Automatic annotation (TrEMBL):
Pfam families: GCV_T (PF01571)
BP terms from Gene Ontology: iron-sulfur cluster assembly
Name of this chain's protein: GCVT N-terminal domain-containing protein
Domain of life of the native organism: Bacteria
Source organism per UniProt: Hydrogenobacter hydrogenophilus
Domain GCVT N-terminal: 30-211
Coiled coil ranges: none
UniProt keyword Transit peptide, yes or no: yes
Family annotation (InterPro entries): GCVT_N, TrmE/GcvT-like, YgfZ/GCV_T_CS, YgfZ/GcvT
């Protein structure tokens, strides 16, 4: 079991009841998020979480958010710049009675994960959690979030003092160690793998970050076009690397066939995109001043 204090920001989203809203939506803040983000906000149950992308018209990501739905509001968890996000949100809401509050100073963020995390949380809080469940307990917000690292994990939001007390009971890791785990597990990150020029479908996010049935939202048409064409031409992949850095291009027959987007601290593993037609597991290819060996692809 491991734990870390994540450097992430929190935004509270709340609003008024609306009289003229899409069917099945009663609050204006729910309508705002549902029409903006990639997942089914309207369909979220109270005390649950979901993972969402905020997309451009061309379907590429601007930001990503874990969205926690509480009794009468939402909390957005992001690593983006809150000032810039709130400036854009206030422009986009137009006349909607939707309001935003930066909770970053009030809500620090611990994440506990790995073998034994569930038992620890159950013993500490006196209850167990279902996947995606969010609870407010003793001044803390606790959520079972298996999407963050694709293994059993728990987000705990609250005062820095309380979270330090919890983290002192587990094996604490550094941000760089957490980043190395992310790369090892082939998990895309905003502004690394999730970036302009690449569809989130190429990163394998369809199953848990994107709804194809909820109706219109910004970027939906571009996502649908890529999806209904069939398999994407590129795919996110993990590589064993030598003498490679972020931004290096993968080459074959003097042609670019891929791009490195993240490299771990040891310099021996990396994530990046490669043409699906060239994605042969175990194959070694030149890349920058070094080489890469394809280990795994997302789909």
């Amino acid at each position: 079991m491991k734990g870390i204090l994540l450097e992430r920001r929190k935004i509270k989203v709340y609003g008024k009841q609306g009289k003229i809203l899409p069917k099945g939506i009663q609050e204006e803040h729910t309508a705002f998020l549902h029409n903006l983000l990639s997942n089914d906000i309207k369909g979220m149950k109270e005390s649950s979480l979901s993972y969402n992308l905020w997309l451009r018209q061309n379907g590429t990501p601007i930001e990503d958010f874990f969205v926690y739905k509480l009794s009468d509001h939402y909390i957005l968890d992001t690593e983006g710049d809150v000032k810039n996000i709130l400036e854009e949100f206030n422009k986009l809401k137009l006349s909607m009675r939707v309001y935003f509050e930066d909770l970053t100073e009030r809500l620090s963020h611990a994440f506990i994960f790995g073998e034994g995390a569930g038992k620890f949380v159950e013993e500490f809080f006196g209850m167990s959690f279902e996947d995606g469940q969010v609870r407010e307990l003793n001044g803390l917000i606790v959520a079972k979030n298996n999407m963050r690292l694709r293994e059993e994990g728990y987000d705990i939001l609250g005062s820095r003092e309380k979270l330090e007390e919890i983290l002192n009971r587990v094996g604490r890791i550094t941000p760089q160690e957490f980043e190395d785990i992310r790369i090892e597990k082939l998990i895309p990150r905003i502004r690394k793998e999730l970036r302009e020029g690449f569809s989130p479908l190429e990163a394998g996010l369809l199953s848990y970050a994107i709804s194809l049935t909820k109706g219109c939202y910004v970027g939906q048409e571009a996502i649908a076009r890529v999806y209904y064409r069939g398999r994407t031409p590129r795919t996110l992949a993990k590589f064993e690397v030598k003498n490679v850095k972020e931004g290096d291009k993968i080459r074959e027959d003097n042609k670019d066939i891929g791009l490195i987007t993240s490299v771990n601290s040891k310099g021996d593993k990396a994530l990046g995109y490669i043409l699906r037609a060239k994605a042969q597991i175990g194959k070694t290819l030149p890349c920058g001043a070094g080489e890469v060996k394809l280990l795994e692809v997302v789909s």
